[in-house]
User: Which sequence fits this backbone?
């Protein structure tokens, strides 16, 4: 997606601050970025209208909700036809345990990140759901032993 709006240093500071804490009041944000509260409000609205700021969410601790196991799964498709890809992507969109999906270059067609409660939960998902999808020819699973870095913040 092309960026139509030019962003300046204050916009970058606003974006960085909001990536760290989206619950900041306009006054708190203004103090952090060195601008007035009214200016921050106007800038946030302009950043939203330009599509630079999208949804506001709160991050949930996966361990505390029983979803502490991360599995990275490579997917090989049976067919690369548009209909098969579309059906698979709709399937992915409807599965809450799949939290990320990337169309890939190279040997594998897709990479998904699946969050589950335990190995048994993943086995059930893999065998009964994922490999049962008509577009999926095969999968290779990689269990994350630990997470050394996780961020949703983009470098600005």
Assistant:
């Amino acid at each position: 997606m092309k960026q139509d709006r030019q962003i300046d240093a204050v916009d970058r500071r606003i974006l960085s601050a909001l990536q760290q804490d989206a619950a900041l009041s306009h006054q708190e944000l203004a103090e952090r970025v060195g601008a007035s509260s009214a200016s921050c409000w106007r800038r946030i609205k302009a950043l939203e209208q330009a599509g630079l700021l999208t949804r506001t969410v709160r991050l949930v601790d996966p361990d505390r909700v029983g979803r502490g196991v991360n599995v990275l799964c490579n997917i090989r498709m049976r067919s690369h036809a548009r209909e098969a890809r579309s059906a698979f992507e709709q399937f992915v969109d409807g599965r809450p345990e799949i939290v990320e999906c990337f169309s890939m270059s190279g040997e594998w067609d897709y990479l998904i990140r699946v969050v589950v409660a335990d190995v048994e939960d993943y086995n059930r998902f893999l065998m009964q759901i994922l490999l049962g999808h008509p577009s999926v020819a095969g999968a290779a699973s990689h269990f994350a032993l630990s997470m050394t870095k996780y961020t949703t913040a983009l470098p600005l």
Remarks:
- Helices lie at 9-20, 26-33, 37-49, 82-93, 119-130.
- Strands lie at 69-77, 98-103, 110-116, 136-143.
